[in-house]
Design a protein that fits this description.
about 475 residues; Alkaline Phosphatase, subunit A; nine-stranded mixed β-sheet; binds zinc ion; four-stranded mixed β-sheet
Length: about 475
């Protein structure tokens, strides 16, 4: 690909297959799709969480291969505030933005998950202060670009309400347009979280989620107008577009707290609400949950003091796995079949998830997992959870993701479009042209990285997925 082409990758967090028809009724999205090649059934990764998904989108690899198998690292000392996999160094394998860097392209990334400290020219990483002794400004600047200070000065007012929505996306949107206007980067990657945030809080089909879709359409419209003007300013230059969702989501109204069950079984020790030691720890992934034991419990902790390794022999591991499978199946049977499936680590690995877990379980429809070790083990969602202003009074979600890609209707979407320059003769050979209005029946999230890499003129040799040539002419 020539550097005459700009590539824009927009991730609308949580945009799933059911959203497509709603978006097609909106002016900008429908106009965008007219000239795009797209797929409405993109198989997610397991667990279908934002960080594993974006690491897969970036590398084309299964979570077990890129290593980001959850949003957060395993840390039973801080189950709620554990570090997230914020950094590029957490991701194994080449990313599509590494391809851009290799080709000497400049890039901008706004809140792109798992990209902190990555080879990105203008990086506003998704990192947040999770410990009192850490400093947000230092963490962001250390892993991102100095221009964040300018962005904070210009658009920080949108964050005066905290990182709630739509304020955070407004900040991201304004910042991305500013970086575009000021620095004209060759690759722009944007992660908008408005929809996902509102779905978690208010439910899949809530008015708040529908309003977020409306705002997403306007954001896309802003980019389409901006790029049209840019193409007029810069004769002979093209724009490659990628629009994607990272996963779908499902409504639920009950949380399963397996760490409470583990405490009841003597596999975890509590002092008040705090976990003081664990033989097994249940690490939630929204609609699924991985149970870890032995050295996997503390492997990822930053402080060596906390990294107390308990080695499990193969026999102990096998016995513990067997015990957990039986315990979870019995528990589910006694509690309305709340757990749909229990997989061994080996079975989880075969689905691309973390093979190092002792077991991985999948919640039934209507349920999800929480890490809280507090009572009760199954926590129902009452209507009183939100006060009349809609502020959360207790920590429970209305909709979530992280479920198995095998859940029916639980796919996400992907679209590519290539706006060529008016003088076609300027198009260098090797440039891809998306088939206008072409619909691909099925694809997998692991195919996105290799496809975006090829649009940038490179490839990802370690990817598990493939370049989707069917989306392009020729
Ligand atoms: Zn997400």
């Amino acid at each position: 690909m020539s550097r005459d082409t700009k590539t824009i990758v927009i991730s609308f967090d949580g945009l799933g297959t059911p959203d497509w028809d709603i978006m097609m009724d909106k002016p900008n999205f429908s106009r965008f799709v007219e000239k795009a090649a797209f797929c409405l059934h993109v198989e997610a990764v397991y667990p279908s969480l934002t960080y594993p998904s974006h690491a897969t989108i970036s590398t084309g690899r299964w979570p077990k291969n890129h290593g980001v198998t959850n949003n957060k690292v395993t840390d039973f000392h801080h189950p709620i505030t554990a570090d997230w996999y914020w950094y590029r160094k957490c991701v194994k394998g080449k990313t599509f933005y590494d391809v851009a860097a290799e080709k000497g392209m400049t890039s901008a990334a706004l809140l792109w998950p798992t990209a902190g400290g990555g080879a990105i020219t203008y990086n506003v990483p998704e990192i947040f202060q999770n410990r009192i002794w850490k400093n947000q400004v230092y963490m962001s600047l250390h892993n991102g670009c100095p221009q964040q200070l300018i962005l904070a000065a210009r658009y920080g007012r949108y964050l005066l309400h905290g990182v709630g929505q739509p304020y955070l996306d407004t900040f991201v949107h304004r910042s991305a347009l500013y970086l575009m206007n000021r620095y004209d980067p060759d690759l722009i990657m944007i992660h908008y979280c408005d929809l996902d945030h509102n779905r978690h809080r208010f439910g899949h089909d809530s008015k708040q989620a529908m309003d977020a879709l409306e705002r997403h359409d306007r954001r896309l419209g802003d980019w389409m107008s901006r790029m049209k003007a840019w193409q007029q300013e810069k004769e002979g230059r093209g724009v490659n577009w990628v629009i994607l969702g990272d996963h779908s989501s499902l409504d639920e109204n009950k949380a399963i707290r397996l760490n409470r069950l583990l405490a009841q079984q003597g596999l975890l020790k509590l002092r008040g609400k705090k976990i003081v030691s664990a033989k097994v720890f249940a690490k939630e992934a929204g609609g699924s949950c991985c149970l870890y034991g032995g050295e996997d419990l503390t492997r990822e902790l930053i402080f060596p003091k906390l990294r107390r390794t308990q080695i499990l022999s193969d026999q102990e591991r096998a016995d513990l796995t067997k015990r957990l499978v039986r315990m979870l199946k019995d528990f589910s049977r006694e509690h309305g079949d709340c757990i749909e499936a229990v997989y061994t680590g080996k079975e989880a690995g075969a689905m691309g998830a973390d093979p190092n877990c002792l077991v991985m379980c999948e919640a039934s429809l209507g349920y999800y997992f929480q890490e809280s070790p507090q009572e009760p083990v199954i926590y129902g969602l009452g209507d009183s959870e939100y006060d009349p202003q809609g502020h959360r009074q207790r920590r429970l979600d209305r909709a979530t993701h992280g479920y198995s890609p095998r859940k029916p209707g639980y796919t996400t979407v992907f679209a590519v479009r290539t706006d060529k320059p008016r003088q076609q003769s300027n198009v260098q050979s090797g440039d891809l042209t998306a088939k206008e209005g072409f619909e691909l029946d099925r694809m997998r999230l692991i195919d996105e990285g290799p496809t975006i890499a090829r649009m940038l003129g490179g490839d990802l040799p370690q990817a598990d997925g493939r370049f989707l040539s069917e989306l392009f002419e020729g």
